[in-house]
Design a protein that fits this description.
Elements: E1 15-17, E2 24-26, E3 28-31, H1 42-54, E4 59-61, H2 72-85, E5 93-98, H3 113-127, E6 132-137, H4 146-158, E7 162-168, H5 172-185, E8 189-193, H6 207-214, E9 217-218, H7 242-245, H8 259-274, H9 279-288, E10 296-298, H10 303-310, H11 320-330
Parallel strand pairs: 3-4, 3-10, 4-5, 5-6, 6-7, 7-8, 8-9
Antiparallel strand pairs: 1-2
Bound molecules: NADP nicotinamide-adenine-dinucleotide phosphate.
Residues 31-35, 61, 138, 168-169, 193, 221-227, 230, 232, 241-242, 280, 297-301, 305, 308-309 line the site of NADP nicotinamide-adenine-dinucleotide phosphate (NAP).
Length: 331
């Protein structure tokens, strides 16, 4: 069935300015790390993407290695883009990344110019795109000079293969250096993509302040700790969950669903209920409460999860008392 996007798609979404740039992002964006590979169901993937766009989610986040197998999320996205979203290209922000292992030999990993330029060409081909909106260096490379890696981002922007440059998982000190190099090159960094959730709060120790001061956007990934920060594991590990999937590639594993974590999840769940939210909604709202957050980057294995998660936008204000309670639970 051919797809026409919902006419009301822009009514329920909030759009936040990405740092001090001209670009606005939806407060909730969708990532294709898992559930969009060749091992997954293509029709389900299509339905998730359609529902997301119908709900005002204009930003889809990919990387060269998403799948499994690596590359297959981009291939599947390319198929769905061709059939469903091509006519909406100018309404979409599509990102991809390189930085983790992608192909054999010395040129398919880390941060050389050789790797980053070749990988983007491959990504564009897989997705059937002329350009991506954001191209990220996926993780810092301790061996390649930062000038070379940032130079590669600057190059692809100048070539028109990407509109903006971003970095992911850089610590504050190396992020500050990357920002300075990019600024000097004339391609200011648009955005930083760090892991951030109620369970992983490292960006509060300097990175968020740096991003706020520099006017650079922030799009946290795994805000639900891959599903742990929902009520889904409270009665055990469901068969259709990520923790039971054995997907590999960094996906949540059963051993990470510990009793100690679940004790906290249970208490957080009660707090969410008192706020009239599901735990998933409260966990996302908690990330969005800070105005320096440009967008929160969710994953989903079913369209209904996107619908549920989007309800976080109804209330992302927290009282002092609630924040204190959260602090006590997470100690
Ligand atoms: N830059 C990086 O290094 C990096 C690393 C990781 C991720 N990312 C990006 O961040 C995106 C999101 O990461 P993530 O998938 O780990 O995010 P997440 O939102 O923390 O976890 C998503 C998982 O949580 C469960 N879930 C989602 N909504 C739910 C709901 N409303 N109720 C109950 N369960 C729900 C689903 O698990 P089930 O599958 O169990 O149903 C879903 O697959 C990725 O797709 C990728 O774009 C970037």
């Amino acid at each position: 069935m051919s797809y026409t996007a919902s006419a009301g798609r822009y009514q329920g979404m909030e759009y936040r300015r990405c740092g001090k740039s001209g670009l606005k992002l939806p407060a909730v964006s969708l990532g294709l790390w898992h559930n969009f590979g060749h091992i997954d169901n293509l029709e389900n993937a299509r339905n998730i993407l359609r529902l997301a766009f119908d709900s005002g989610i204009t930003h889809f986040d990919l990387a060269n290695n998403y799948g499994p197998p690596p590359g297959s999320a981009e291939e599947n996205f390319g198929k769905i883009f061709a059939s469903d979203f091509k006519k909406y290209r100018d309404e979409l922000i599509i990102s991809t990344k390189a930085g983790w292992a992608m192909w054999d030999g010395p040129y398919g990993d880390w941060g050389s110019k050789k790797y980053l330029v070749a990988s983007l060409d491959q990504s564009l081909k897989r997705m059937g795109l002329e350009y991506v909106d954001i191209y990220y260096h996926h993780r810092p490379d301790p061996e390649t000079p930062l000038e070379e890696t940032m130079g590669a981002l600057d190059l692809v922007v100048r070539q028109g293969k990407a509109l903006y440059a971003g970095i992911s998982s850089y610590q504050p000190r190396e992020a500050a250096r990357a920002f300075a190099i990019l600024k000097e090159l004339g391609t200011p960094c648009l955005i930083h993509q760090p892991r951030y959730s109620l369970f992983e709060r490292w960006i509060e120790n300097g990175l968020l302040d740096l991003l706020g001061d520099e006017g650079i956007g922030c799009i946290p990934f795994s805000p639900l700790a891959q599903g742990l920060l929902t009520d889904k594991y409270l009665q055990g590990i469901p068969k259709d969950s990520r923790a039971a999937s054995g997907r590999g590639n960094g996906a949540l594993e059963g051993v990470a669903v510990t009793q100690a974590k679940l004790e906290k999840v249970k208490k957080l769940n009660e707090l969410a209920q008192n706020r009239g939210q599901s735990l998933a909604q409260m966990s996302l709202a908690w990330v969005l409460k800070d105005p320096r957050i440009s967008s929160v980057l969710i994953g989903a294995s079913k369209p209904e999860q996107v619908t549920d998660s989007l309800q976080c936008l109804k209330n992302y204000r927290f009282s002092e008392q609630e924040l204190k309670k959260i602090g006590e639970i997470l100690q």
